[in-house]
Amino acid sequence: MTTYVFPPSDIPSLPIEGSGQRFPVRRVYCIGRNYAAHAIEMGGDPTREQPFFFQKNPDNLDASGEFPYPDHCNDLHHEIEMVVALHSGGRNIPVDRALEHVWGYGVGLDMTRRDLQDVAKKAGRPWEIAKAFERSAPVGPLQPVTEVGHPDAGRIELTVNGEVRQTGDLNQLIWKVPEMISYLSDYFELAAGDVIMTGTPSGVGPVQRGDVMEASVQGLGSLTVTVV
């Protein structure tokens, strides 16, 4: 029997639509600038340059419906994303076999301390202070592939207080879901419980305490989050 010097933390997990079961989370990978218009608004190249990823912590995922405005930030931005959840993994996964590893999909937000990210970019430093802070990834319930299939087209939209801020279509992803899985598996050993946030369309912008964000992906439902 394994003993620990103090009780270990609970395993981070996500709710599943229509089920009392939970999806245990192992790692969270996030791709940057994966919609052409967003790449342009962030000063990047909208072409298929080599993809790049950063990570959030598994316990950054939060399904409570509330997002606490973080300390040390004066410019907090919303980024709506489709979430991909894996039930298996491996190394060097071929693109044409990648979707076999997907358990389901969901709707999520990559909340970003943009002012701290800008400082990090200028200094050539990592982004974790801007991306991987507490509860920085609000998410909705996951939808199993058996119910929703593999969405590769459909409207993705975010409103703030009823005003449309971000809108796009999943068919505008520069790197598609199978390509992301395959690329990641060349550099990491993917496994059950891994989550991939697939990038955000253009229109990212600030939110304040009291704002209500509603994120939706066609076929995957919606997520309502209040900034507190």
Automatic annotation (TrEMBL):
Xref: InterPro entries: Fumarylacetoacetase-like_C, Fumarylacetoacetase_C_sf
Source organism, top-level taxon: Bacteria
Gene Ontology MF terms in the entry: acetylpyruvate hydrolase activity; isomerase activity; metal ion binding
Pfam families linked: FAA_hydrolase
Keywords: Isomerase, Metal-binding
Domain Fumarylacetoacetase-like C-terminal residues, every copy: 28-228
Protein name, per record: 5-carboxymethyl-2-hydroxymuconate isomerase
